[in-house]
Amino acid sequence: MWLVSALFALVGAVIGQVVVARLHFGGGFVARFLLVGGAVGLVMAGSLVRAYGWGVEFWAGVLVYAFACELYVFLVTLVDSSISVSLLLLLRRGSSSRAEIDHLSSSRAMVASRLEKLRMNGLLRRAGSSYALTGRGLRLLVLFRVLRVFFHRRPLPAIGRP
Amino acid sequence: MLHVGINLALYTALRLRITWLTSERGILLYQALSFVVLIIAGFASASMDPSVEVVAGLVAAIALHGIYSLSFLELWSLAEGSYSLSILEHIEQATRRGEAVDASGLEGLGVSKKEQRLGSLERLGLIQDTADQVSLTHGGRKVARVLASVAWSAGVTRTE
Q: How far is CA A13 from CA A22, A23, A43, in A?
């Protein structure tokens, strides 16, 4: 019952998110899903407490739901930003030569799209004809520098220099 | 919770001694192995006491490990070579040197990333390159269909 509740809640959260996305209320996917998924999760948690109290079945249901939601958010962010996914979706339309792939998925468009996404997420701001990091962007960069040292023991590669 | 704590503590202690643990394959195997150990230990307990509470506890532990492993792998992968983070790093360096952002450097990075990813997709058997025509394999078409459904559900449209 708790497992079925968690899976039904996930389906409900995904459908709710699709409906909210189609109604164009604005906001990014993550904020939208946090809102809808959070509300559905609270309802599910309430029904599990009524059925099982705060026992292990309650925690099992909540954790399965949380894991399923994280997996869905991961998949969507992967689809939204991964270069590999972009190539797979491009090739879904039909086979292409490497030159056609370069033309259809141009690096200039890729850079422009990333810069715009980073700006919309508040990590970059326009500075004249160029860009500069916002405070939030700088904090994120510092965090990932620490993580890079922790995971890989090396700094970020320099770009545009030999 | 204890198992996840041990996983993180062991990784922190061993990553400096075993360089293999900092590679993509190494980190995937490390997390997969930890998952398998948890499942075997959980099934052993469940077979000794097959009560609903023990089974629920096992499922909760697997879900918690899933949340931890997915977060760990995401952070690892982003720290390893995210294109967006490389752009942020590039802009921060240019700002520190008092220079304008070098767009051609970013485009060059985009080209090399695309080449790397085409190679990875080919190695994974999702695409094939025959006579300069790149196309999806049977498996690649299935994966692309799932990803397109995910994109549709979230209202994501790729512009590049």
A: 14, 15, 11
pLDDT digits (tens, 9 = 90+) for A88-134: 888 888 888 877 777 666 667 778 878 888 888 888 888 777 788 89
Q: Which pLDDT belongs to residue A59?
A: 92
Q: What is the pLDDT of residue B20?
A: 75
Interface of B with A in 36-55 (CB under 8 A): 52-53
Give the global pTM.
Answer: 0.76
Q: What is the pLDDT of residue A148?
A: 83
Helix or strand or coil: residue A1? coil
pLDDT for residue A118: 87
Residues contacting residue A126 through CB under 8 Å, at least 6 positions apart: A119, A132
Cα separation, B102 vs A127, in Å, equals 14
Q: Measuring CA to CA, which residue among A25, A118, A88 is closest to residue B150?
A: A88
Q: Which of B151, B144, B154, B3 is nearest to B67 (CA)?
A: B3
Tell whether the torsion through CA atoms of B123, B127, B131 and B132 is positive or negative: negative
Q: Do B136 and A92 touch (CB under 8 A)?
A: yes
Residue A25: phi and psi, rounded to 5, are -80, -5
The closest of A105, A81, A73, A75 to A92, measured between CA atoms, is A105
pLDDT by residue (tens digit) across A61-72?
999 999 999 999
Distance from CA of A108 to the nearest CA of B (A): 6
Q: Cβ B86–A95 below 8 Å, yes or no?
A: no
Residue numbers in B near A48 (CB within 8 A): none
